[in-house]
Structures are given as C-alpha cells and as structure tokens.
Amino acid sequence: MSAMIYKKQICRYLAAFLLIGFACFSAPLIAADTTPLKEQNKAIVWKYLNSIGTKDQDSVAAKTFSKNYREIRAEFENLYYNTQESKLAQSAEPLSQAIPDRKDEIELLISEGNTVVVQYRITGTHMGNLYGIPATGKTFNIDSFSIYNLVDGKIVDGWHMSDEIALLRQLGTPMPAREDGQYRIPPTGGETAIAADDILATLLANPEDSREYRNKLNVASRKANNPPPGYMKKSEGLSYDKSLRKGFQHLTDIGNETNQSHLSFGLAFSDRVDRLDYFLVDGDWIFIRFRLTAVNTQSLFGLPPTNAPVDAWELAIMKFDDERWRTAWWFGDDQSMLMQLGGPQSFWFPPKS
Q1: 157 vs 36, 147, 324, CA distance in Å?
Q2: Are 126 and 136 within 8 A, CB to CB?
Q3: Ramachandran region of residue 322, left (φ > 0), alpha (ψ -120 to 50) or beta?
Q4: 203 partner at 20 to 30 Å CA-CA among 39, 89, 278, 339?
C-alpha cells in the first residue's frame, strides 16, 4: 500500500469519529443514547461556572475536576505563553489579583457526548499586573469559549480561547515586549484535525435521514474547498441568513480602518485549507473548531507576505431553524495570526486620521 493511499484511509477513519461528534484526540466512546449523559454533563459544567468568584468555588471545583485534570490551552494563551522564560513572568500576578472583580456571563452552553462547549463573556477591572501589563484600572468586556471533556462526571481536560485583542484594545495597550524582542508563539496543536473536504466526503458516503445530518452537510460543504455539484462553494457567498461576527474580526476591522480591506484573507491565503477537529451538534446548534492552514503568499491588510505557512485556530457557532441556516458566529485567534505573520503589536493601534 502506498504512503499516500494509507494517509487518505487514516484521514477517513479519523473523519468518521468527528462525524459522530467527538474530538478525535480526547473524547472517549460513549453509549448510543447520549441524552441523559449530555444533560448531566451540562449541569456539572453549569454549576462550576456559576460558582466562579463565590465562596463555594474551591469546594465545587474539587468535586468537578478530575485529579488528573489537564488544561490544554489557557484562556489568554498568547499573553501567557509570551511571558514564559522572560522577566515578564516575574512581574505577572495571578488572574484573581490582576482581575479581582472578574465575572463570567454564560451566553450559550451546548453538549454532545462527553463534550460541553461554553460561550461566555468575561467582564472585570484590570487592577493588577496581567501577563506583564501593569494595572490600568480600566474595565473590559470580552468574548470567550471553553471546551470541556468529561469522564464519569468529572472534567478531565479543558481548552479555552478568549478575545485577547479586544482585551488589549480596551485596556489601550499592546502585548508587552519580551526583553529579547521576539515573539514566543504558542504551538497550535490539533495534529489530528481533518480537512473539511475529507469530512464532507465521509458524510456523503454515510447518509442519514435526519435534520442534524443535513445541517452537518450544509456546514461541511461551506468549509470545504471542493464540494460536489449542488453544494455551496465559499466563492459563491454566504449559505446562511446572517453573519454575526467575522472569523478574524480584529484583523478585518484594522484592514477597514486603514483602507486595506481589499488585501483580504482570500488573496493572502489562496491555498487555504480548514482542518476540523470538533463537529458538535446539539439540536439546532452546531459548533466547530478548526485550524486555518495556508501559506501566506500575498499581503494581508497591508502586512508584507511571509511566504511561510500559518496555522491558526478558529471557532464557530451556527444556529439552524429546523434545516434553515440562520446565523453564523466566527471567532479566530487574531493575535496568533498577527504573530505568525511577523506583524508589529502597533498594528492593533493604527494612527487616527
């Protein structure tokens, strides 16, 4: 068997796991009837999230998290990772001191199998050194996501992504510079993620008579580069009624502010492939997590092309009304993308005209 054929078969096997709603790298197999387990897991996560900032937080956490709990990605991963092995880490204070009045407001909680996804907002006041950023006294309000995997009623791992650029822009300060003048970029991970075209092919090869299946087809074809005839292509526009947020919203906003909007993602990443590792369905909601992978061959919003590969996380929440795709809310890791492109932190603070 050739290496190429073997690789394609492996991808298809992995895609099969994604299509039943599991993260290939972490979620264990579960019983066929997942409804009781799904609701139980939601309740566990909900109880913990509502205990944050209260006197009961520690006792609830002790009952909620596995002794071997693993945090795969921090809420402020880019800021945190940039401090490592630098003097910035020495000045940084715990989050509970840097944001003493923090509050989390849950906006959406969905689940499938052993996985619970939470969309929430973090509000607070910057009162202490936050990953090398001295206290500004300013308040902020930002979007955030968490993905929890549970086994036997315990959270075994967590993956988080917060809107770090919204945080920096609201605080009025860029990510602090390391003494060596270099970026320390977190590794993306997610090596088992699968190209959207492969997921779509596996879906089409395993048809089901259900609205969830047809909604998955709609989403997978929208992310695929080469869907078969009859399915929406990216170049043909939106396949949903309303876009609530762009994938890399802050990069796009700066492009508009600096009159560089014509230097878009489509031009900068012409060989783009989206690789999914979560495809979770909960009724009329679909959540996906994927990596935008490409080679940067053209300018992105005025940044010089690097002719080097990029690999950045993006999340999306989609809402369906039966089988009509109503809304899509996209959320990319703008900070990681800028760092991979070698752009300066001043990019987030363009001069006002």
Answers
A1: 21, 8, 33
A2: yes
A3: left
A4: 39
Cβ distance 174 to 254 under 8 Å?
Answer: no
Each residue of 93-105: pLDDT tens digit? 999 999 999 999 9
Cα 51 from Cα 61, distance rounded (Å): 8
pTM (two decimals): 0.88
Calculated CA dihedral for residues 265, 268, 272, 276, nearest 10 degrees:
-50
Domains within the chain, CATH numbers bracketed: 27-171 (3.10.450.50), 194-348 (3.10.450.50)
How far out from the chain centre does Cα 258 lie?
A: 26
| Token pair belonging to 107 | 């906006």
pLDDT in tens, 218-257: 999 999 998 888 776 655 666 889 999 999 999 999 999 9
Helix (H) or strand (E) holding 334: helix 334-340
Instruction: Judge contact between 341 and 334, C-beta under 8 A.
Output: no
Torsion of CA 160, 164, 81, 150, to 10 degrees: 0
In one-letter notation, the amino acid at residue 59 is S
Distance from CA of residue 94 to its chain's centroid? 24
Distance CA 163, CA 308 (A): 25
Burial class of residue 96 (count of CB atoms within 10 Å of its CB; 0-12, 13-18, 19+) = exposed
Strands annotated E in the chain: 65-73, 103-112, 115-125, 139-151, 154-162, 194-195, 242-245, 273-282, 285-295, 309-321, 324-332
> Which positions ≥6 away from 141 have C-beta within 8 Å?
121, 122, 123, 170
